[in-house]
Write a structure and sequence with these properties.
Elements (H helix, E strand, L loop, with lengths): L2 H14 L4 E6 L7 H10 L5 H6 L1 H5 L10 E8 L13 E2 L8 H20 L4 E5 L6 H7 L4 E2 L5 E2 L7 E8 L18 H5 L17 H7 L6 H5 L4 E3 L3 H4 L19 H4 L3 H5 L3 H8 L3 H5 L1 H13 L5
Parallel strand pairs: 3-8
Antiparallel strand pairs: 1-2, 2-7, 4-7, 5-6
This protein binds iron/sulfur cluster (2 copies).
């Protein structure tokens, strides 16, 4: 099969498996990013970077993840909800966390995609990744022509915005690659100005140690005072730098049943959140991304948000 036909077939399979977009790039070395990471690591002390540091060589060289790799296939899955959680919930959760754990959903969809490609082409070498520090997902998605990394550091699809999960497949197939996405942020700086804690102090670079998302999701340390002050009822993640992005004006609701919130979650009030027990937390969040953060982190965030003005 010719590279172009191969590329079209893979994209058709991705669509048939439920992905919203698919692009392809040659699996070249990302060695040009090494100075960026060196500088980044020298400035950051967050624990979450340990995994990134440990896996830097794999991140820069996909052949260390899959010997004989020829191509990178990136897929996008929209998670933009039909509507935000009800106001009576009082506390705000990042949109990506409303439904079932995206890692599981996307892995299953990519498994199906691989099975279908194998059914067409026979044996192939392939490895898939979701949210893995071993793969520079946003860099690859841009190289696969699916958008650009905006000044808020997120991947922005030119027609559909940034409320997407990214999945990456490494393969020894050689379909025709796409043209890399071009930056369209231009002179816009809305995300930088909107960030309440200055975590985007330099365009295209996030300071995790300042970011509400990092502190409310990743960090198991007590929340710093400046984070508590700026929670504004956000108890799991922060979407501000996406909400203000003009590229998200035309975001469409997702089509994934598993991303719908649990009806019990929609029925929660602020008091219900404050009174959460470990058992109730399990009932509400088991199988979601929030469950990974755990009960104690959630309660730490709720107490902190409450201390700074969340009222019934
Ligand atoms: S997620 Fe929130 S805190 Fe983090 S950079 Fe974006 S706006 Fe700032
Ligand atoms: S808000 Fe503006 S600068 Fe920020 S990512 Fe969106 S387009 Fe780029």
């Amino acid at each position: 099969m010719q590279p172009r036909e191969l590329s079209e077939t893979i994209k058709a399979v991705a669509r048939a498996c439920g992905f919203d977009a698919c692009g392809i790039a040659r699996a070249e070395s990302l060695e040009y990013l090494r100075p960026f990471y060196r500088e980044y690591f020298s400035q950051q002390r967050e624990q979450s970077l340990t995994y990134l540091k440990t896996n830097l060589e794999k991140r820069l060289n996909p052949a260390l993840l899959l010997p004989g790799v020829q191509s990178v296939i990136a897929v996008l899955l929209n998670y933009y909800p039909r509507e935000p959680l009800p106001e009576k919930n009082q506390f705000i959760l990042s949109r990506y966390s409303y439904g079932s754990d995206y890692h599981v959903i996307i892995k299953n969809m990519m498994r199906e995609m691989v099975l279908r490609i194998k059914a067409i082409y026979g044996a192939l070498e392939v490895r898939s990744f979701v949210d893995s520090g071993m793969v520079a997902e946003k860099v690859w998605a841009q190289r696969c022509g699916l958008g650009w990394q905006g000044k808020n550091t997120l991947l922005i699809h030119p027609r559909a915005g940034s409320f997407f999960f990214i999945g990456i497949l490494l393969t020894d197939l050689s379909p025709e690659p796409d043209e890399a996405g071009k930056d369209h942020c231009g002179s816009c700086d809305l995300c930088i100005r909107a960030c309440p804690v200055g975590a985007l102090d330099s365009p295209y670079q996030l300071q995790p140690g300042l970011c509400l998302s990092y502190h409310t999701i990743e960090s198991d340390q007590p929340l710093p005072e400046f984070i508590k002050e700026h929670l504004s009822q956000r108890v799991y993640g922060c979407d501000i730098c996406q909400e203000v992005c003009p590229c998200n004006r035309f975001s469409q609701p997702h089509r994934v049943a598993g991303f719908e919130p649990n009806p019990k979650l929609k029925a929660m009030t602020g008091k219900d959140f404050r009174d959460l027990t470990p058992e109730r937390f399990e009932e509400l969040f088991k199988g979601t991304a929030i469950y990974r953060a755990g009960y104690h982190r959630m309660m730490r965030n709720i107490r902190a948000a409450e201390g700074y003005g969340a009222m019934d």
